[in-house]
Recover the amino acids of this structure.
């Protein structure tokens, strides 16, 4: 089996219930992520977690003419990982969207994620998190472009669904580009 890491995308308070850009049922990914983290530990697989980490005047915020309410402002409560997420102490944290003038949906955009994974010899990524139709999709497509095999852990994702089937379309697009899309129970280790 290819050397595998898990990549948890933006499991942050602002994307969960009560957050500034809450994804419906976003909290539901947390137990799935925790199960994935436990399995990763059992199989000796490293854990990477991305976080949206914006300056207060980020270009994606409505005040700057962007599409979103202010969210995931660096260091603030909304930008913290969900309190129930059991990230191990040695998880690699990747911050993205850190510059005012550029958005970064993908965990690979403007970060050292690909280099950090290659340094560990990682060939395959198990990816889930928030949101299916934005940051998860962008991260998965970039991971494929960077040469990683990707399994999208479907039950560990939730979508914004600006249009009602955006999440389903995102899964289809990720699959069309070469990702396997399957529930955690079917992941092979
Ligand atoms: C995200 C909208 C804006 C995401 C981030 O993590 O999916 N969505 N910023
Ligand atoms: Zn953002």
């Amino acid at each position: 089996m290819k050397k595998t890491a898990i990549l948890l995308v933006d499991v942050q308070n602002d994307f969960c219930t009560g957050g500034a850009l809450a994804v419906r049922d976003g909290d539901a990914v947390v137990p799935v992520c925790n199960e994935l983290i436990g399995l990763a530990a059992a199989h000796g697989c490293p854990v990477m977690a991305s976080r949206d980490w914006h300056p207060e005047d980020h270009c994606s915020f409505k005040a700057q003419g962007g599409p979103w309410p202010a969210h995931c402002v660096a260091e603030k409560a909304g930008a913290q990982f969900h309190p129930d997420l059991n990230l191990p102490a040695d998880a690699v944290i990747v911050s993205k969207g850190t510059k005012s003038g550029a958005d970064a949906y993908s965990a690979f955009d403007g970060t050292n994620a690909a280099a950090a994974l290659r340094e560990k010899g990682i060939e395959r990524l198990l990816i889930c998190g928030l949101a299916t139709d934005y940051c998860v999709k962008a991260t998965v497509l970039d991971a494929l472009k960077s040469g990683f095999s990707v399994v999208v852990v479907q039950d560990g994702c939730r979508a914004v669904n600006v249009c009602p089937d955006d999440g389903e379309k995102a899964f289809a697009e990720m699959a069309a580009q070469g990702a396997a899309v399957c529930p955690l129970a079917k992941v092979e280790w």
Q: What stands out?
A: The longest helix spans residues 29-42. The pocket of pyrazine-2-carboxylic acid (ligand 1) is lined by residues 10, 15, 21, 52, 60, 68, 105, 130-131, 134-135 (CB under 6 Å). The domain at 4-186 is CATH 3.40.50.850 (Rossmann fold). The mean pLDDT is 98.
